[in-house]
Amino acid sequence: MAITNAGIEKEFDNKLLKRRELLISLEFEGPTPSRAEMKKALADKFNLKEENMVIVRAGQEFGIRRGRVLVHEYQDKEAMKVAQKHTLARPNAKKAAQPQQTATASAAGAQNEEKK
Predict the structure, then answer these.
(1) What is the pLDDT of residues 22-73, one digit of tens each?
(2) Is the pTM value of this prediction over 0.70?
(3) Which of 59, 78, 103, 112 qualifies as a FRET site for 33, CA 20 to 30 Å off?
(4) Could you tell me which of 39, 10, 4 has the C-alpha nearest to residue 23?
């Protein structure tokens, strides 16, 4: 992954939530970069604090190695925890929910077999 070109399309200073909202267009070589790779490259290029930065949305144009990324950079970690609480918890929630769904599906399958 190599981001060859990146530029800020829009920038908004959200004082209420203590963050800067950046819409960044980027071009890259090779496969689509992961969020972690984008986060590191954008932090280096635009002098952002990687630990206070959240990639909210990343999209790519079909067939073209170009995309747009919505980034929120918070003033501090406390502001990030308050504003992004639901987003930060989401990946962990999916992992915890999967075993419960499997157990529920197994129980439903066992009930269907008992009826036969």
Answers:
(1) 999 988 888 888 888 888 888 888 888 888 888 888 888 788 888 898 999 9
(2) no
(3) 78
(4) 10
